[in-house]
Amino acid sequence: MNPKKFRVIHYVNEFFGQEGGEEKADMQFLVKEGPVGPGLALQKILGDRGEVVATLICGDNYFAEHIDSAAEEGFNRISSYAPDILFAGPAFEAGRYGVSCGALCKKVHDELGIPAVTGMYEENPGVDIYRKDIQICKTDRSAAKMVQDITNMVTLGLKLLSDEEDTRLVSGENIGRPSEYGYFPRGIVRNEFVEKTTAERLVDMLVAKLKGEPFVSEAQMPEPVDITPASPIKEMGSAEIALISDGGLVPKGNPDGFKMRANLVWAGYDVEKLFPDGAGPGEFEIMHPGYYTVHVLDDPSRLVPVDVMRDLEREGVIGRLHPLFYSTTGNAGIHKRCQEMGQEIAEELKEKGIQGALLTST
Amino acid sequence: MRLQIESIDIEDIQVGSTTAVSDHTLSLNLKELEEHILEDTRISSVELNVVSPGDRVRIVNIADIIQPRCKIDADGEDFPGWLGRLTTAGKGRTRSLRGIAVVVSNSYATKASDTILDMYGKGARISKYGTMKHLSVHPHPSEGIEERDFEHAVKVAGLKTAVYLAKAAEGHPVDQTEVFELSLPDQKQSNFPKVAYYFMIHTPQHDYQGIADPILYGTTVTNLMPTIVHPNEVLDGAVVSPHTMGGLDTYELQNHALITELYKRNGKDITFAGIVTGVANMEEVNRQRTAMMAASLISNVLGADGAVLTKEHGGMPHVDLALVAEACEALGIKTALWVHLSHSDTPLSDQLLFSSDSLDAIVNVGQSLEKIRLPKADTVIGGGEDVRVFYTDFSQKVGDEYIEIAGATLAGAYDYTGGSRIMAVEY
């Protein structure tokens, strides 16, 4: 059976595209038929398995100056070639080149769903920006070992192109381990089938720890983050305070579409509507499966202490309870998104001149 | 205490006029079993189905999966506190049938937490139950029976069926005999480190209507103070899975992988020092008290050098577990614990729910919410094709062309007693 010969596009910058040096860094996109420069090594390594049908070349400055539209433009220039895979670079240590390679690979992968592989040295800024989205092979700092670096890229690329199910992964996805294929870990987690049971591994690990022998933990501690607390509120009696909760309290009908798990959204809701003063519970529901909700459904002040805050406002202890209550669902929340939501809410509070916030959870 | 489990392998199930096991084939008088189940007047009717690996069948609304077992001794009680009278589980002889399980479904429960089981395709490949034969038990409630009462009836029906099947193998030659013997008061001094097991058996956060399910000798454990139990009690029916949380089956408790591993290693590189059970708490002060008392039992009563600690479901209980472990470490007991992860697109370091220098030995049970995509079945039992499955919301039905669910929703994929060979790895 003849295995398919893959249609390959190669992206390089002005230098590797043999258009010139730094003076050509502003050049716009150019497409040449067949392989160019390091593309020749790429083609040789691919052999019969792939054909570099075209090389896309662009100046590092041109790309870096408007990354998103450049990536779009680059994608448009090569999509008509119906490629099976895109290889970009390798960019080694070159920062603008690395960012261009990353951006183009991400765009092509997102639009066409095909594998897009590039290569960079670990200190290339493109690594941290794009490692989550695409596979970036680890290369040397310079082009000294370029053939080896391109070989790694090809090996990974062919793995991604193969339609074999990876039986090592529970999901069956064919993505290859970072350590085996020499690419930067993407910060994602996948379940693997392994030889030993969880129980065996747990006892093994404890025995090693008791013996003072080395062991490798299967989970990592979070990096501690230093956060400077805000200064205390000087005049509480004139301060405006907002209430925030991740207990999933939303108006009936869940108008902003909070999800019950890994929720990505927050919203501000009218306190008077959800907690009508003295008139019993308002029209609301709870989008959170992680706690037993009946006590909050009976009286939402048990989750969001509006009743007490109103008392404090009447007594003059605080200046004013902010009329919007900020809500989200925090169940199996995604760490990064939770940080972003906090920042977004904080910005809104700051814009409104609110001095303090009380956060209540479940 | 000494427990002897005598296992018989079942290779085939046939419906017949008697219930008996002969030549590794279970013959089943469904009518007799049906009458036995209907002795409980809370149940008006029951559907019984035999299911085999490869059948394009999806069992839904699973409330429990139970291994057929019964006590062999005359004074033995099956599932004491649930079926049998109260007597200490874990001594004497127990018969166990392998290659077969009782899968009991409750289609009247209104919760997100039950599981499904596919006997074909990817689901069967991943689940440990995919290679076994099953007897599906799907009871229907009598008029006017309240939801919780019916849940208890469903549990009883499952346990009764498990005992009924095991009894049928009386007289059949035994394929394997295993002995679990541990006498803590008589343990001799040895060179091996003494290892205790902290077994968190419940978290109250998912208690439906705020009421816990009876899981320990037929009673609830919501405010359980840290309690020493003998490992054999867990293996021999003292603990069953709750109604509420799918994904931990009585089958897994009966075969508790960590307990059997600790027994296996006892005298080889550890001395198994016993088990302290505890529960997660909703209030901080209770959480701290549990940690303090559990650590003291492990250190001052069991005299352990090291401890392994485990939890079942929920995010919050990681905090409870970590507090127990930290309290142990503070008393000089080295710990190793396991966690489960919840996200596929987040680095490992952003997923751990506690952070402590002394808790450096962590194993993971997997990312049990990782998505699995499963094709539809030809037949759905335990409910209809319009039964909803939960995966961030209830938009999918079990009869859809494909469903995407969390791995933990597939029975037998992940094992919170430590029996699965899965590890979450950073990619």
Q: Could you please describe the fold and organization of this structure?
A:
The complex is a heterodimer of chains A (362) and B (427). Chain A has 2 domains: 6-181, Rossmann fold (3-Layer(aba) Sandwich), CATH 3.40.50.2300; 236-360, no CATH class. Chain A has helices at 38-46, 60-65, 67-79, 95-112, 125-130, 146-161, 178-181, 198-211, 271-274, 294-298, 306-315, 335-351; strands at residues 6-13, 30-33, 50-58, 85-92, 116-120, 135-138, 189-193, 240-245, 249-251, 266-270, 284-286, 320-328, 356-360. In chain A, strand 5 (116-120), helix 5 and strand 6 (135-138) form a beta-alpha-beta unit. In chain A, helix 1 crosses helix 6 (146-161) and helix 3 (67-79) packs across helix 4 (95-112). Helices cover 34% and strands 20% of the residues of chain A. The mean pLDDT of chain B is 95. Chain B starts with a strand and ends with a strand. Chain B is globular and about 60 Å long. In chain B, helix 7 packs across helix 8. In chain B, strands 5, 6, 9, 10, 11 and 20 form a 6-stranded mixed sheet that branches. At the A-B interface, strand 7 and helix 8 of A face helix 6, strand 16, strand 17, strand 18 and strand 24 of B. Strand 7 of chain A pairs antiparallel with strand 24 of chain B.
